[in-house]
Amino acid sequence: MSKVDAIVYTSKAGHSKEYAEIISKETGVEVYELSDAKKNLRKSNSVLFIGWIMGSGIKGYKTAMKSFVVSGVVAVGLAPMGSTDAEIMNKNNIPKSQKFFYLQGGFEWDKVSGADKTIMKVVKNKFNKDFGEKEDKTDDEKEVLELVNNGGSRVSADKAAGVIEWINS
Asked: Burial letters for 96-119: b for 16+ Cβ neighbours within 10 Å, e otherwise?
């Protein structure tokens, strides 16, 4: 018996969707995009919600909280694993009763437009200013610079292992 009835996600560049599919495959739990979940699931269903991060906010999380019993939350972001957990949990008012996971997704310049693209250009410039000239960059700083400058995905089944283990336990 699984801890959740379904996996529900929102995704912009596809990284949250990829994680949802990986986790579904490894757990046998059905996966739904948030709008489809609202049509197909009941308010009493327990879900793992997976959403992408913008400015520390988890997209779709508030809607999922109003629509289902959210037992676990996966925030998918640009930064390497776990580097901003407390900030994200605080900003999104995630209760201690919900299991929280942060997974590094990636960044795709070709999937960003409008105001989001303007914001990400500012973020890119800030990261390049803060870390670009730094002689002794950490591996995390190198990775963020690589993603904001060149794009790419860091989605992997290995990174989702903790979520899979939690659902299956």
From this structure: eebbbbbbbbbbebeebeeeeeee
